Amino acid sequence: MRSVGVEEELLLVDALTGEPQALSTAVLAAVSREGGDEGEVFEAELHRQMLEFATRPQTSMGDLAEEIRRWRAEAARHAEDVGAAVVALATSPLPVSPVIGSGERYRWLEEQFGLTTQEQLTCGCHVHVSVDSDDEGVAVLDRIRPWLSVLLAMSANSPFWQGKDSGYSSYRSRVWGRWPSSGPVEIFGSADRYHQQVNDMVGTGALRDKGMIYFDARLSHNYPTVEVRVADVCLDPGTTVLVATLVRALVETAARQWRAGEPPARHGVGLLRLAAWRAGRSGLEGELIHPVTMRPAPAEAVVRALFDHVRDALEDSGDVVPAQEGLAALLKTGNGARVQRELLSRSGGLRDVVTECVSRTRG
After folding, report:
1. Which of 68, 147, 264, 267 meets the CB 3.0–4.6 Å disulfide criterion with 142?
2. Is residue 360 situated within a structural domain?
3. What Rg value do the Cα atoms of the chain yield, rounded?
4. What EC number(s) is this enzyme filed under (predicted)?
5. Helix 134-144 to helix 191-203 angle, to the nearest 10 degrees?
6. Which of 203, 313, 298, 193 is nearest to 253 (CA)?
7. Is 359 part of any domain?
8. Burial category of 358 from C-beta neighbours within 10 Å (exposed 0-12, middle 13-18, buried 19 and up)
9. Whole-angstrom Cα distance, residue 223 to residue 234?
């Protein structure tokens, strides 16, 4: 059974006004004072209005769900200690002036990328799935490429930007796409070619190091995993678990195809970028680009095609029923973008949207 770990980035906000607060240093100090293993769970991010946590690797999705809920609750508790709250939104609905964190790395990013760095107050969800080798990992990367846009549509949770409706379900994905190393990639064919590409990109001097390889999915440079980085942080922790479940099944399905000698789909990067744009624009409303045909199809049909694609792996891991239930709930309730817009239509104010989402973050 492949292990799965999740990293979630959360916004720090004022509990009453919903405005982002640059308090990550204070929150991490509160974590440190308590000691224990939480110092290895929470860490700062590019902007001080953000807090990240990482789960331990799990083979049981039930255990993963418990960890996600636990660390969200702990993040909320530590934020309360310094007069703030955490919220699982991929962008701030309210206007904000992001504060870049201290440290040489963040200063370098600000100097090199200017406004792109300043405006990267966005929160994602990264899913790590164990692989047996770099060869297997790259074979997986080559074969999951067409399906990543579907995960983006499912997780989309960033319709608002600087106090306005962006017109997108995941505006985070558009902001994140400003990094020169982000987005979908070509087929590598082998681990050697993957590593050569990474080394050549770093060698240009435009990237500081391998940590700036921001592909939608990559080999982790810290762990023996494939790291899928395409998703928004999800408002509902149940959606996070669903995305993680499907990512593990995608990895296992792709590894089986590789071992069976099945080649990856040859879709070009241009088509994959269009599919990602459509997913970020539409979310689960309207149409997506089908990963097999690369033609428009209803979003629900595309999501169900993803489920069918990985059904055998879900069956073998015992996740098929929870995944079916999670998909049904998501298609009924909608992703975070739909929920946020519905909250705005009922309350009339973005502050109310944020404060309600603070409550929902804990699930």
Report:
1. 264
2. no
3. 19
4. 6.3.2.2
5. 80
6. 313
7. no
8. buried
9. 23
User: Quick check: is 234 in a domain?
Assistant: yes
User: What's the N-to-C CA distance of the chain in angstroms?
Assistant: 27
Q: Is residue 362 part of a domain?
A: no
The total number of residues written for the chain in this structure: 363
Strands 287-289, 160-161: pairing kind: unpaired
Q: What's the CA gap between 280 and 172, in Å, rounded?
A: 8
Residues 6+ apart with CB under 8 A from 267: 145, 146, 294
Question: What's residue 175's pLDDT?
Answer: 98
Q: Give the count of domains, the chain.
A: 1
What CATH number is given to the structural domain containing 108? 3.30.590.20
| Among 269, 280, 248, residue whose Cα is nearest residue 122 | 280
**Do 53 and 8 form a contact (C-beta atoms < 8 A)?**
yes
- Per-residue pLDDT, 352: 96
- Distance from C-alpha of 4 to C-alpha of 36, rounded to nearest angstrom: 23
State which residues form the domain around 158: 4-345
Q: For residue 252, what are the CA distances in angstroms to 119, 130, 310?
A: 36, 10, 8
CA-to-CA distance for 259 and 101, rounded, in angstroms?
Answer: 44
Nearest C-alpha neighbor of 286 from the set 301, 299, 303, 302: 299
CA 345/CA 33 separation, integer angstroms: 42
Question: Over the chain (363 residues), what is each successive 10-residue block's mean pLDDT?
Answer: 97 95 95 81 95 97 97 96 96 97 93 96 98 98 98 98 98 98 97 98 97 97 96 98 98 98 98 98 97 98 98 98 98 98 95 96 80
- Residue ranges in 22-103 assigned as alpha helix (H): 24-34, 61-81
222: amino acid identity, one letter: N
Would you state the pLDDT for residue 282?
97
C-alpha span between 212 and 330 (Å, rounded): 32
Provide the pLDDT for residue 13. Answer: 98
Q: Which residue has the tokens 């009339």?
A: 348
H or E, element range at 107 = helix 104-113
Cα–Cα dist 253/307, whole Å? 11
212 within 8 A of 206, measured Cβ to Cβ? no
At residue 38, the pLDDT reads 75
